[in-house]
Each structure stands twice: as C-alpha cells, then as structure tokens.
Amino acid sequence: MNCDCHARLLRIYSRRLRKQASIGKVKTSRPINLNLFSIKWPVTALVSIAHRVSGILLFLATALLLYLLDLSLQSEAGFRQAADLLASPAASFLIWLVVVALLYHLIAGSRHLLMDIGIGESWRAGKFAATAVIVFSLIGAILAGFWLW
Amino acid sequence: MVTNATSLGRSGLFDWLVQRFSALVLLAYAICILGSLALTPDLEYESWRAQFDMPAMRIFSLIALLSLCAHAWVGIWTVTTDYLNEAQLGRAGTLIRLLAQTVCALLTLIYLFWGIRIFWGG
What we know:
- The complex is a heterodimer of chains A (149) and B (122).
- Chain A is an all-alpha fold and 149 residues long.
- Chain A folds into two domains: 1-32; 43-148, Fumarate reductase/succinate dehydrogenase, transmembrane subunit (3 helical TM bundles of succinate and fumarate reductases), CATH 1.20.1300.10.
- Chain A contains five helices and no strands.
- In chain A, helix 2 runs antiparallel to helix 3 (76-87), helix 2 crosses helix 4 and helix 4 runs antiparallel to helix 5.
- With 122 residues, chain B is mostly helical.
- Chain B has five helices and no strands.
- The chains are: A mainly alpha (149), B mainly alpha (122).
- At the A-B interface, helix 2, helix 3 and helix 4 of A face helix 1, helix 2, helix 3 and helix 5 of B.
C-alpha cells in the first residue's frame, strides 16, 4: 500500500469521525487537562503526588546521608564531627525533614505494594488507606521529632 | 520503542518489578538502620563502625545501595516522563527532560560509587 493510499484513508476516516461528532455520536477531541493546579485533589491524589515529591527529596537528600555516613565511619574524630553537625538546629531540622520524607515514602509505598497484591484497591479502601498513610506519617513525624530533640 | 529509550530495562514490566523488589529491600534496610539507631540512644564510634564492618551488613548495604540506584532511576524516569515532556513544556520538553535525566543519572552513579567506597573500601 503506498503512502497516498494511507493519506486518503486517513482523510476519509477523519471526515467520517467529524461527521459523527457533529451529530453527537463520538467525541473527536476528548477533554485533556494536565494543569495540576486546576484539578480537584482527593486525598488519594494528594498521597500519590506527595509520594513522588518525597521520592525526589529523598533522591537529593541521599547526598547528605552518604556524606554523614562517610564522615561518621571514617574515624573517631569524623564520628564526633558528624554528631556535632547533627546537633546544630539547622542541620537537625534538615535531618528531621529527611526522616519524615523517608517515613512518608515508606508508608505510602507500602500502601502501593499492598494494592499491587490486591489489598485496598476499591475507592473506599483506597481513600481509607490514604488517610491512614497521612495519620501514620504524622505520628512518625512527631516520634522522629522526639527522637532527634 | 522510542518512548522507552531512557527506562531502566527498556520494558515497563521489568521496571515495574525492579521498582517493587527494590522497594522491599529498601524497606527492610531502612527498618534495620532506623531500628538500630532508635535502640541505641548513646551511639559510639566503635559499635557504629563494627556494625557496618560485619560481612552480612556489608552485603546488605551493597544490595540496598544497588536497590536505591535502580529504584531512584525508575522513579525519576516516571516523574520526568510525566512532567518534563512536550505536552507540558512545548517543543523544548524533550531536551529539558534529557538534561534533567542526565543530571539525575550522574548523581545516581556518584551515589553508587561513593556508596561502594563507604561500604567496601578500606
């Protein structure tokens, strides 16, 4: 089949689609909305996007964690240097944020793993589990705060 | 498939599986490290060092490191192909995505070699 033939078929088909659309049978242009700021945010969507954001944060924070691990394992002096660094308010707040992102990512990720094996896939269960993810993460954040300070 | 050129295993199913298995490894490693940190409030250098010098821990750490890199790459691929594309950013989308992916790939490799040095060097 040559290209000309393809193009003709395509024209015929699109003309037919337009005709059907004009009499209300088929929608040729389905609504597409990719603007994240104009769509509704049910709790499941919130938990999902936060999982992504926390993942990116953790990816960047890995540099900090590897640095601290490297320093703390180098020598007695390095260990104390890392401990002193963590004792400063700014650094300990940063570490708290990283721990919270990690806890959140782990909890929200566990929900995904459970859904992969068929647990909590319905809308009701999904919504409940998403709320549970937020509650557990908040508890984790508070516990991490107590642990660090 | 051109759309899969930057995915980890060139196959959605492979990437999906890698994402899940590495997630389990990282969950286990995080529980192990956070748990041991939480259980030893007065951590000393000697015990901290000894913990990472154990052969089993060295292997576990290396597997976790490899999992981290694979997991991060699949995640970054997913996020960058979702948001840094021509539908979202216009014609420069592909270029921006490839640039971002290059930076992330470099960072992932740095983490990998740095981590290997920490866990197995010296």
